[in-house]
Design a protein that fits this description.
15% of the residues lie in helices and 38% in strands. The chain has 151 residues and is an alpha+beta fold. Residues 48-57 have a biased composition (Low complexity).
């Protein structure tokens, strides 16, 4: 009588153990039934980043994030977000810059829009202003400089 209660039923812990064991066996059986044993002839294609077409890649030799200074990020009367700033050429040769800007939600930090600002021909030791508009019709955004590269 050690395994049954006074009414002939198993204790709850035994029923729970049997239920968990049965579910585990069914899960393993289901996985085995789905497995084909054949390996695929080629790996699945790598996922592509959405919206990354045309974005400059990061090159540590041409990274210039410290040369770009963010300015104002404000919503215009037309509903567009306007972001501006300055880029300072600290190099010894003229440089053209590509600045990747994200318009990001305050809540959740989700990038809503990404823009690329091209700043051509900045002389050594000189600065150039830049500006970009994006994320039209959106509320409560921040403007973020994601990447700066020189050519």
């Amino acid at each position: 009588m050690s395994g049954t209660s006074a009414r002939g039923r198993r204790p709850r812990s035994s029923v729970l153990t049997i239920t968990v064991a049965a579910v585990g066996l069914l899960s393993i059986g289901g996985l085995a039934a789905c497995s084909s044993g054949d390996s695929p002839s080629s790996p699945p294609p790598a996922p592509k980043a959405a919206g990354s077409a045309g974005l400059p890649g990061y090159d540590s030799e041409k990274g210039a994030r410290t040369e770009a200074i963010a300015g104002d990020c404000d919503r215009s009367d037309d509903g567009e977000w306007l972001f501006d700033g300055t880029v300072n050429n600290r190099g010894k040769k003229p440089r053209a810059y590509s600045i990747v800007v994200d318009f990001v939600t305050d809540e959740g930090s989700t990038a809503i829009d990404t823009r690329i600002v091209k700043v051509p021909g900045v002389r050594p030791g000189s600065s150039a202003d830049w500006s970009v508009a994006g994320a039209e019709g959106r509320d409560d955004l921040r403007c973020v400089i994601r990447n700066v590269q020189f050519d």
